[in-house]
Amino acid sequence: MTTPKTAKICEGVNFNFISDEKFKTTRVSFNIFLPLNIQTVSKYAILPAILVRSCKKYPSFTELNRQLEELYGAAIYQSVSKLGDVQVLSISAVGINDKFSLDNKPIMSEITELLCDVIFNPLLENNVFKLEDFNQEKRQLIETIEAEFNDKKTYAHNRCEEIMCKNEKAGINKFGTIELANELTPKDVTAAWREILESARIEITMIGNSSHDLVYEKFQKNFLNIQRKNVVKCENEIIRKCEKIHEFSETMDVQQCKLVMGFRTGLALPEKEVPHMILMCALYGGTPSSKLFLNVREKLSLCYYCFSSYTQIKGIMYVECGVEQKNIKKAQDEILKQLKEVKIGNFTEIELSEIKMAAIQSITKIKDNLTALDVWYTGQALCDRAKSPEEAIKEIESVTKEQVIEAANLVTLDTIYVLKGSEN
Amino acid sequence: MKPIERKSERLGERYFYQKHPSGLNIYVYPKQNYNSAYALFGTKFGSINNTFKIKGQDKTTKIPDGMAHFLEHKLFEGKDEDAFKKFARTGASANAFTSFDKTAYLFSCSDNFNESLKILLDFVQNPCFTDENVKKEQGIIGQEIKMYEDSPEWRVFFNLVKAMYQKHSVNVDIAGTVESIAQITPEILYDCYNNYYNLNNMCLSVVGDVDAERVFAIVESAVSSKKCNPIEVENIFESEPKEVSEAKTTQNLAVTLPLFNLGFKETIAKERVNAEDEIYTEIILSAISSKSSPLYKDLLDRGIINSSFGCQYFHGPWFASVIFSGESKQPDLVAEIIKKEILKARTNGIDNQTFERAKKMLYASYISMFNNNSTIAKFLLEDCFRETELFNYIEIFSNLSLDKVNKRLSEIMNESYSSLSVINPHE
To answer: Phi/psi zone of residue A84: left (φ > 0), alpha (ψ -120 to 50 degrees), beta?
Structure first.
């Protein structure tokens, strides 16, 4: 049974530990949840990167990294992601277990120490982040935003989300904008760092085979020095239905056009019918036996990829595909036709049970992957209670055909985004 | 022949290897406490195998570009039923890939492993190519080709390969072109299949929550009836000159931030780089360009790299290159500084502290690999085709010497044989 032991460090800060002897490495992640807001998004987005760069104890990028490398190539990763209307800042440390150390070095305890150093004791000059380092990270944040444009699949998905959710927090890019990034100052960002430690919702997750008590104590000790205030609430706005379809297209020099269609599903966490929608989405476009794969790709040869994905926290489903310009309308029509097929129940009990099996196996596989396990639990930090993979499987098992049809009939098309080639 | 057991004391793990009488190489690596399993069934046939001759004959045959990849797509379609449909009944998640030197078919699952393994062994060994299904695939692969043409990361890399390699078929597009795949017919597919999908040329690796005995038994019944003659195919590779084709290649795509790949071509004396040389190369790359290195600091301080910066040792049959890559607003300057640093390292030698640190990092990344069923399975497949051994790497780590590091450094990253590939935004 993969259920974490959870302990409260202080209000709004939880520590979860999943013991698992089979992995050769241990992972500790520190995750911060904040409402997406155009005023703060870039200010927050730069934080993880600037924190993992150096710290008071190892006051340069080179020194900190040398220390990590000495700890057998331990890594401290940083990332910024979105959970619907919520911005998530993550700083994670991974290292090999102590028993693999060739010189009896207590690797995990030192890595955790370093992780706490970067989070709680950063390198400050005159009480703010050092200007040189700050400017480096500002430049890199801007380059990160620019790089999203380079990958057209990501770009198209982001654009559809931006347009569809323009009146919701989820419509804000998780890094913000280049203009906002340019306006950042060390003073603002340092203040943001303090604010966050004082009032953000924080979830610490540790997975592996090392002593969790030590890790828990280190974090607890550090939080004793923080004056925690009221925890900032993170909520997701759910729009159940779309009354009017939005269409938007752009032209760029690309060989392959991208089509992204956003749907409101009417079902989102914490509703208990969410597993019905998970299965509906899998049946519709989640596997190579799904309606989208079999029809849009295999039968009609319209595209190399065509799949659907469901964001449980926002109740939104996306269908994405790469397609030739002359086939855009054809693909769109077929995508909607296949959704109708599910709505009228044109699928067999056997097909449903096969999809269930695939969904159950894909959840089970999460237990064999350290990062996937972390993401599984961190992604539920805003729920009242985190479900284990085993619990999620039980829910999937009990979904009926009628429930899948009911779920499909809640789905309405909201936005169609097309990225066209300039000469095709 | 009974399966041989190979153990690693340090890792506390073991696997079994057997060369089946049919010629198939089989690796089974049971993992305790894992909930899932991964199976990989591959053949030593990739995009570089575009010219061959049959042993004893004079005639050489050229295969259309993109053939190995096309075959990979087509094999999923059986006579009666698509393999994906069969896997749907067991709940396994299946896929395949074609790379420069191999094609592999795989699945992962947490239940019904035995049934899924039977499906894998069955569909890969029972091809069915018809005019109709060949035509259909040309459309789908055409879309895949376009997708890769738009990918700046793929293009910057492949343009580099084309710029470095004048004759070696590593410079051929893996998926081919729309024109080259239009020439493919069922007859050519069967011909290639019969030549290259010979069990002597193939390997099955299974990792995870499996019962080794059961796996060997399943393989036995799936292949025992197959009479695989020894391999008759001889791959022909044109002799590759030391020199690169072009020192610089650029392309404009719809990007905001330029990407670069800086490659250093190595001339190798044997078909494959051996494990020791490979490890020494990785140590050198780590010593020169890891995050704690003076090079990284210099590039970062100048504001000309970001966290995308990295390097890899890219090697296969008769080719090997070191490639530095990343996003940068000043790729030419980055290339210049890297070359200066390499020269400096060669002059001063790599010092012992840096060497020890690089060793630790490489050792740890090797250990971490064993968390993952799919990583182990791919490593085993690679081992099989290269004739290296998985646990042997640990031995090599314990016997590395600084002298040999510096000697290896003199053999690689020669500036005279380097190319820079850049993807720039449109003007």
So the answer is: left
